[in-house]
Amino acid sequence: MASKTPGWLEKLAGMLQSGEKNGAKATGGAVDRATTGIEWGKGIQGQGMPWEDYLGTQLPAGSRLPPNFKTFDFFDETTGIATSAKTLDTTTAAKLANPSQVYSSLKGNIDAAANFSESGLKGVTVTASQITARELQVAIPEATTSAQWEQINRAIEYGQSKGITVKITKVN
Question: Which residues belong to the active site?
Fold first, then answer.
């Protein structure tokens, strides 16, 4: 008689193989902190700009928008994909004590992307009619907790309801 693997064990094995943790998946994969240059706890200069610079090497050449462009950081004219690059330091005392702050932060970013209509800066203009897809590329520390992952999953679902693809990348 062949033994049958319990369903929960199969699910766990699948989660481990896919990179899921606590039912959440880092949809943008994982990347080494040294590769991105991100320094958690260092604000826009230590987190945000290095993340944008890293994404600039991963996204189509020429898609980066001017610094301080409203809402989006990249726009691929060929595909119509507008990308907002964000970092979220989940290791702060406030976000550890109150994981719902993770959702609130992501929701604000999602709403901004969903409500974007038009912006122009330094001779570059992007309008809603040019955009075929909107995405939020978020870098988070590897040490993100289970409770925070629950909030991230909520935000991913919320993003889907607003037509925004939320991609989470764990930074090791």
Answer: 52, 73, 84, 86
